[in-house]
Structure formats: C-alpha cells, structure tokens
Amino acid sequence: METFDLLKQLTEAPGPTGKEEGAAAVIEPLWRPLVDEIVADRVGSLVGIKRGAGPMERPRPSILLAAHLDELGLMVSRIVEHGGYGFLRVTGLGGVDRRHLFGQTAVVHGVKPLTGVLGGLPYSYLPEQERDKAFSYETLVLDVGLPVEQVRELVSIGDFISFRQPLRKLGNGRVAGKALDNRSSVAAVTICLEYLQGRRHMWDVIAVATSQEETTYLGAYTSAYAQRPDAAVVIDVTHAKGPGSSESELAELGGGPVLGIGANVHPGLFKALRDAAEALEMKVGIEPHAAGSGTDAYAIQVAREGIPTGLIGIPLRYMHTMVETIDMADVERVGRLLAEMIARLDDHFMDGIREDMMRPHKPVGNGAEQNATKDGNA
Amino acid sequence: MNDLLKQLTEAIGVSGAEKEVRLLIRDLIADYVDEWSVDAMGNLVAIRRGTGQYDMRVLIDAHMDEVGLLITDIDSGGMLKFTNVGGFDDRALLGKVVQVGPDKITGVIGARAIHLLKSSEYSKVVKMDAMRIDIGAKSKEAASAKVKVGDYAAFVTEYEELDSDRTAIGKAFDNRAGCAALIELLRGERYPFDLVAAFTVQEEVGLRGARIAAFNARADAALVLECTPAYDLPNEKDVSPNVAMGKGVSVYIMDSRTIQDPRFVAHIMATGDAQGIPYQVRQPGGGGTNTGMIQRAGAGIPAATLAVPGRYAHTPTMMISLDDYHNIVRLADATLRTLTPDILRRA
Fold first, then answer.
1. Residue A213 is among the residues annotated as catalytic for this protein
2. pTM of the complete model beyond 0.90
C-alpha cells in the first residue's frame, strides 16, 4: 500500500486515549496478513506476533515493537443549557494544546457519534480576565447544534471526544493531519512487517499498538509484562524544527530516523539500531534524553526483570495539534531500519549486549562522530 | 444536502480576490437573469426584470467575499508570513489548514509544540505575526515556485449538515448564506418591479464594493441579505443574546453603521407576522453591513437588512440553522412580493 494511503487510514480513525477501538479496528486488518497471530489485549492494545525462523526446540528470543495507537482527545465534563440548546463543556485527554482548539470540529462518542464545533464567544463578550488568553475549558464549548433535551439523551458526562482532520498532502512528500503522533509509528511498524515477509529473521517479532501512552503508558506496561520479550524497540514521534522551534537540538523534518540515547535507552539496542542504519547507509539523527524519554520506552524498560529497550523517533512538527506534519520518507525509513535491525538479530545478541555492559573503556556509540571507531561487536 | 450552500461555502473568495466565487455565482444565475455584468471593482450585478406593475428598482445586496489571509513574505526556510484580510481573532488560526493562491496549495498553521513551552505560555495567545503557513517547502526558492507574495489564503472547511439535519457547519456562511438566498430569489417568479441583484466584493474590508454597486444601481429601495454573528452561547456573565441561532430571521433595526428605514422594517415585520415566518429583532447595537454604504449612495436609498444568525463568525467553522436559512428566503421573497412604492414614500 502507498504510504499516504496507509497513513490516511490510520490517522483518520478515531482513537482518543482510553477509547482506542476505532484505531484498533483499522490496524487489525492491516496487520492480520502480515503476522501469524493477532490478539486484542484486555486494556486496549493490539498485539500481532510474527514467528521467527529460529529453532523450535528452545524458546525463540523475541523483540517487541511498541507504537502507541492512542491519540489526544477531549472528554465531556458538563452539559450546559443556554437558550434551549445544549452545549458541552469539555476537558482534555492527554497533553492537549488548548491554543489550537477554537474553530476545530470534533466528534462526541455518545449514544451515537455527533459532530460539533469547538467555539467560543468573541473577545468583547468574554469575561475580562479571559480576553487576552487562549480559550480555556471554561470558555470553550463543543456545540453539536441540538436542543438540550436531545443532547441529554445522546450525550453523557464522561463521553469521549475525538478530533477530526483528513490527512492532507503538503509539498515534498510531507503530510499534515491529526494523530500522526503516533499512527505514523504504527505505519512504520506495518512497513517493517511488510519488509519482513521477504526477509529471514530468527527472532519472533511482537508488534504492539499500545493503548493510553498519552496519559499513563498503560498499554506499554501491560503488553511488555504479558509478552515478556527479550528486547524492545519503541517507535514514537519527536520534535522537528519548524516555526517557533529552531533549536539546534531538534530533528530535521525528512532528516531520517532519530535514535534515542540516554538513561531510558539500552546502549546495546541503540548500537544495534545504529549498526543497522550504517548497513543501509541510512542517515540517522541522535536525540539524548537526560531522564525519561516521554515515550513507552519509559514503561517497557522497567517491565518484569527489566527489558533492554531502544527508541526511534520520527521527526514531526506541531506535536499535539490537528496539523501535525511529517515527511513520509521518514516513516518508510523507520520501517526499513526496523526490518534490517530485526533481520540482524541472532542467538548471541542478548549475550553480546550483556557482555558489552561489563567491557571497560569501550563506550557503546555516543554520537555520530564516533561512528568511525567501531568496536567490532556487531 | 443543500447543494447551493455547499458549492457557495466551499468556493474561495477572500476580500479583494473574489474571482472564483464570482464565476461560480455567474454560472448559478446566468439562466435566470435578464442581464449580468461585472463592474470596476468586481461586483457581479444582475438584473431580473419585473412584471411591469411598478416603475421601481429594488437593489438586493449580498456580499460574496469572505475573511481570509494574505501572504506578505516568504522566509528563508520556505515558510509563509501572512496578515489578516478582514477581522480576525488570532486565536482562531492555530491548528488550521489553509489553501494558498489560485493553485490552492495546501498549507498548515502550526506553533511551537506544547512540550517545548514554559507553563506560563500554555494559555498565551500566539500573535499572527509570529505564525507561519507551512506548505512543506524546504527553502525560499522552493516555496516561491508555488506561492507568491500577494497570494491569498482561505480556510479549508467542507460543508456538512449535522445530525439534526437542521444545522449546517462550514466556512464563509458570512455571507454565502446571503448569496444563496439571493440566488433563490432570482430563480423564483418575477416580482412586480425590477430587481437589481448585487453580489458585492470587499465587504469585510470596509463595505467597499457595496458603495459603487449602490451608486450604479440607482435603486428606489435596497434590501441587504447577510449572515450576522450569533453570540447565543453560555457565558459566565450572561449577556442577552444579540440574536439566537434557529430562532428566526434576524431583522436589523440599528447597528453601528445605520438606522434602517423604519417603513421598510415595519413592512418586513408585518409580512413575517401575516405569513407566519419566524423572525427576531436583532439587538440594536454594534456591527455593520453593506446597508451602511448603500443607504448613503447617491441621493440616499431606503434600506433594510435581513440576516441568518451564524455562530462562530470569522472563524474557519461557522454554524447556521437551515430553518433560519429557508426562512430568510421566504421572508425576503414575501417582503418583496408585497412591496409597493407607497410603502417607501416619505410623507
């Protein structure tokens, strides 16, 4: 499938944090032909397992690929009657950027889906203390255009609300839409699974579309526990340079996969990803995380006995808005990089990264400038 | 699905660049009018002759322009700087998709991600001059191949009818709702007098087009069809709504630009009462329509204004009641069919 069509299907599906079944319903048929087994877990994640070619007599090692399927959303907090109409007051699900809400449309998932407009009063009608601020949840309404009696029949406090935005093409293979955080990573995992149809890999691959990353990493904690993988790679989006964000530490849109490094990332997984990129002659960026990475890696790293975890970022502009923007080439590159890394995993990989932890004065890759001094332990 | 509203609201016509919507309206009315022409500013003016009963010309105005953006510069990274065309709340711009220039290049307006903000910036309004339109170009040269300084940008919002079937959302109901109503009047039976239908330009930047349209029309009376902002939303300090969506056609008595012709207004309300067409008097006060220009054209023209109440005016997504829309067509039609020179004659 063309990457645009894949992303379009994935991003347009509704999957606000905590109510991801709309997104899972789109992912399931995409993954089913690519994996040997597919299961929905009990807290909203979707798990697809593709068996490796390793011997059956002992448990095959497995690698878990985590890409969260939830997206930001809103939730109904109150129904307010005014002039006979029922207006909905809302609150955020996940780190919603309220500055972007005014003038958007959204769908309330009540008794049946209802489309509404996120509106508010003009400047001069707002209370004075609200005038020079972005709209707050006290001043915004979700207006479904219905009389209050009907609204009360169809909508309840606590109903989930998803944003709407068709995926659109910009120039240079770039696309803009909602939920590219993190369906673009789900797309990359799908592309990886497609590559693996034609490539021999020894390890089992456990692809997980994790739930509730935007709030608690719930799906990452539980799927890492349930699947008990030997290693994991988390795929999520990372900030790309754009208007208002020109810091040198940010990634370039279209600049290729960004490999996470730091306390939240196992050096062995970082190195495996970097080596795979070198084998593909693929340019990668490096993003240091001083503490948590703000991704599912934070949960998976400490699941069970601890799971060596790597992190790949897809550069994205305008994160947590309805115009998130990515370069489709980056998604394709991440898919290819994952497949290459997985195909290179062998029986000795886990022992190798364990030994590396105890090898004195041989820091495993610390930046692009050290790529030349390989330590020979591929 | 109301095809007329769909076609009209999805067409682009930012003030000063109304060509697309002008051509669309021309195609929609050409078979129903006796003549049409385009004047020096781009107003589309059509004549529908009357039955000959009264020697009278009535101007019906509906502005066809909409608020939008104007590209003012292309920066070194290929991002587009812009300014507003027509009144805008800066807060309505973030997170929106726009179409730029005659080739409708898709662009988005983003901002520094919330993760990278200080908490004191979470509710700070981003000013328009700090925003950029991102069309995916990687350099100034690449962007310049697709977009020019001076190109206009409009929002991308598809027309939709909501669950109730009585409510529609879309962009530019201000004033494509008025344009649609005027087109419906032109498609009806002939009136007892000549109708001059003016689809005017540049209302949003100072009622500019209506001024010359009114001068050229040499009309005996004028009726302006509009979409007026409805502020009937819940608020901490409850303000009595100026008009309310779904509660009938908004009849103007006074706004910041005009006191409407009392005879004409009385005739409109009497017509509504007699024929059971729901209307509401718009709370006298602020705002202004083309009536302000038309009334003072030439030696003066008795004028009145009818409007569809529309929530969220001057944002990418407005909302109207389709009942209000049908009623403005009915009330305008009934008002005109019973209008006589005597009604407007001053004592």
1. yes
2. no
